[in-house]
Design goal:
The complex is a heterodimer of chains A (196) and B (234). Chain A is of the alpha+beta class and 196 residues long. Chain A folds into 2 domains: 64 residues, no CATH class; 110 residues, no CATH class. Chain A has 6 helices and 7 strands, in the order αβααβαααβββββ. In chain A, the strands form 2 sheets. In chain A, strands 4-5-6-7 form a 4-stranded antiparallel beta sheet, covered by helices on one side. Chain A has a two-stranded antiparallel sheet with strand order 2-3. Chain A is flat and about 50 Å long. Chain A starts with 13 loop residues before the first helix and ends in a 5-residue tail after the last strand. Chain B has 2 domains: 157 residues, 2-Layer Sandwich (Alpha-Beta Plaits), CATH 3.30.70; 49 residues, Uridine Diphospho-n-acetylenolpyruvylglucosamine Reductase, domain 3. Chain B has 8 helices and 9 strands. In chain B, the strands form 2 sheets. In chain B, strands 7-4-6-5-9 form a 5-stranded antiparallel beta sheet. Chain B has a 3-stranded antiparallel beta sheet with strand order 2-1-3, covered by helices on one side. In chain B, helix 4 packs across helix 8. Chain B is elongated. The two termini of chain B are 25 Å apart. The chains are: A alpha+beta (196), B alpha+beta (234). At the A-B interface, helix 1, strand 1, helix 2, helix 6 and strand 3 of A face helix 3, helix 4, strand 8, helix 7 and helix 8 of B.
Chain lengths: 196, 234
C-alpha cells in the first residue's frame, strides 16, 4: 500500500502507513433490549480504546463517530479516522471559517441544500504551508455525517444534519456540529456538548 | 463442506463475538498487500448525484468527484451505478491455516507474539488474510500469490511447530495451494456458514502503522491486543 501516492485518492493517508487493520466486533440477539445492546457496544468501545492506546496517532474506519460520541466515552475525539480531507466548496471559495459557512448553507431549506452539497460540492484542501499532505498536514476539514450515526444530539433539537469539523493543525480535536429544527422550527446549529 | 480440505475449526465464540466485515471489498481484501487497495484499482465510476445527474467520474472527467469517491465512501456522494476496475490475471495462491484452542492464556500470548514478529516479512512476501484471537482461541488464515508451496511450507512450519509445543494448546494446521483467488475466498468469505448477514452487530477498526508492528517488544503488543474482547488482525 505504501507504493501508492497517498494523494492519488481521497482515502485517509493513514492507510498508506499502516501494516495491519485491527478490528473488533460485537453482536447481540435479535430482539435484545436497549440495555443489552448498550452492554454489547460497551465491549466494542473498550476494544477501540485499547487499540487507540496502542496507536494513538493512527485512525479508524467505521462506526467510531457514534462510539466516540456515546456518553460513556465522551472525549475521545481524535483527528484520525476514515474521513478524507474534504470541505464544502462554498467554505473554501469565500474563505470564511467553516462555522459561518454552515450558517450560510443552512439559510436555505436545509435538507435540499445540504443534500446537494453532500453529493457534489466539495473540494480538496491541500496543505497551504508545505504543499504536501502528510499525517501532520494542516487540514481543516469538515464533513457531513448521517445524523443517524450520532447518538448524542442535543435533546431538544431534531437533528437532520451533522458536520464533523477537524483541525489537525492545532490540537487535532474534532467537533461535531448539528443543525436542525428546534421547537420554533428555526434552523440552528449547535456544538455537541459531549464532543467539545 | 465449508473447509473441504481443512479441518473444520469450531469457531462459535469467535464468530459470535466478531462480526463479519460488512462490505470492506472496496478498500481491502485478502490480497491487498499484493494488489494494493481496491480503491487504487478503480478506473471509473458512474454515479447519480443528488441533483439527478448521471455522470461519469474518472481521471479526466469529474476528477474531484472521482478522487473523493475513492476514499470518502462511495455512497456518500450519490448513488454509484457502476464501477470499472483494473483487473489482474488469475494466479495461484499459497495459503496457510492455523487454529488453536487454548486453555493457557500465556501460550496464546506467546503465539500471538510470534505472529506479530512474523507479520512484516509475511507482508513483504505478499501475504494477506485474517488473524482472529481471544485468549481462548486463535485462528490464522493467510494467502499469498508470490510464494511457492515449498516457500509457504518453510515460512509456516516453524510457527506451526511453535504452536504445537505450547502448553494448553490443541492445534490444527495446514498449508494449501489453490489454483486461483476464488477458491480460498469461497471457503472463507463466500460461504453462507461463515456469514453473519442479518445478525445485529457492530464492528470497529483501527489502523496499526508499520512502526507499531515492528516493535522491539512484540510480547507487550500481544498482551495489549489480547485485552480486547476479540481481536481481528488483517
Amino acid at each position: 500500500m505504501s507504493r501508492v501516492d497517498p494523494e492519488s485518492t481521497g482515502l485517509n493517508p493513514a492507510w498508506r502507513k499502516s501494516m495491519v487493520l485491527a478490528s473488533t466486533g460485537t453482536t447481540w440477539q435479535d430482539g435484545a433490549n436497549l440495555t443489552e445492546i448498550q452492554a454489547a457496544r460497551r465491549l466494542l468501545i473498550q476494544d477501540v480504546k485499547i487499540l487507540e492506546g496502542i496507536a494513538p496517532e493512527s485512525g479508524a474506519y467505521l462506526n467510531e463517530v457514534r462510539l466516540n460520541c456515546m456518553p460513556s466515552h465522551p472525549h475521545l475525539l481524535q483527528p484520525h479516522f476514515f474521513f478524507s480531507p474534504l470541505r464544502l466548496r462554498d467554505t473554501s471559495s469565500t474563505g470564511r471559517n467553516p462555522s459561518s459557512a454552515l450558517t450560510t448553507t443552512n439559510s436555505e431549506p436545509s435538507s435540499t441544500s445540504t443534500t446537494r452539497n453532500h453529493s457534489s460540492s466539495f473540494t480538496k484542501v491541500s496543505d497551504q504551508t508545505s504543499g504536501t499532505q502528510t499525517s501532520s498536514a494542516k487540514y481543516e476539514t469538515h464533513r457531513l455525517v448521517d445524523p443517524s450515526l450520532i447518538s448524542c444530539g442535543p435533546d431538544k433539537l431534531d437533528v437532520d444534519l451533522c458536520y464533523i469539523l477537524i483541525n489537525s493543525s492545532t490540537d487535532a480535536r474534532r467537533r461535531i456540529y448539528y443543525t436542525g429544527r428546534s421547537a420554533g422550527d428555526s434552523i440552528r446549529e449547535s456544538l455537541c456538548d459531549h464532543c467539545s | 463442506m465449508a473447509y473441504r480440505r481443512w479441518p473444520q475449526p469450531n469457531l462459535p465464540k469467535l464468530r459470535s463475538r466478531y462480526a463479519k466485515k460488512t462490505s470492506p471489498d472496496l478498500v481491502e481484501s485478502h490480497s491487498h498487500h499484493s494488489f494494493v487497495l481496491g480503491v487504487d484499482n478503480v478506473l471509473e465510476m458512474t454515479i447519480v448525484t443528488a441533483d439527478g445527474d448521471h455522470v461519469i467520474a474518472n481521471s479526466y472527467r469529474n476528477k474531484d468527484l472521482f478522487w473523493a469517491l475513492r476514499g470518502g465512501g462511495g455512497g456518500t456522494w450519490g448513488v454509484v451505478t457502476s464501477v470499472t476496475y483494473k483487473t489482474h490475471p488469475s494466479t495461484p495462491f499459497s495459503a496457510a491455516f492455523l487454529f488453536a484452542n487454548s486453555t493457557n492464556a500465556s501460550s496464546t500470548r506467546s503465539l500471538l507474539t510470534e505472529i506479530i514478529r512474523l507479520t512484516p516479512p509475511l507482508i513483504e512476501q505478499g501475504y494477506g488474510g485474517y488473524v482472529l484471537a481471544t485468549t481462548e482461541q486463535l485462528l490464522v488464515f493467510v494467502i499469498s500469490p508470490n510464494v511457492t508451496a515449498e516457500q509457504n511450507q518453510a515460512i509456516f512450519s516453524p510457527l506451526f511447530e511453535f504452536a504445537i509445543s505450547q502448553p494448553g494448546f490443541s492445534v490444527e494446521n495446514s498449508t494449501f495451494q489453490s489454483q486461483d483467488l476464488w477458491e480460498p475466498y469461497d471457503l472463507i468469505s463466500a460461504n453462507p456458514a461463515n456469514s453473519l448477514v442479518g445478525v445485529p452487530s457492530e464492528i470497529s477498526t483501527w489502523l496499526l502503522p508499520k512502526d507499531v508492528i515492528e516493535t522491539d517488544r512484540p510480547e507487550e503488543l500481544a498482551g495489549e491486543l489480547l485485552k480486547m474482547s476479540v481481536l481481528g488482525y488483517l
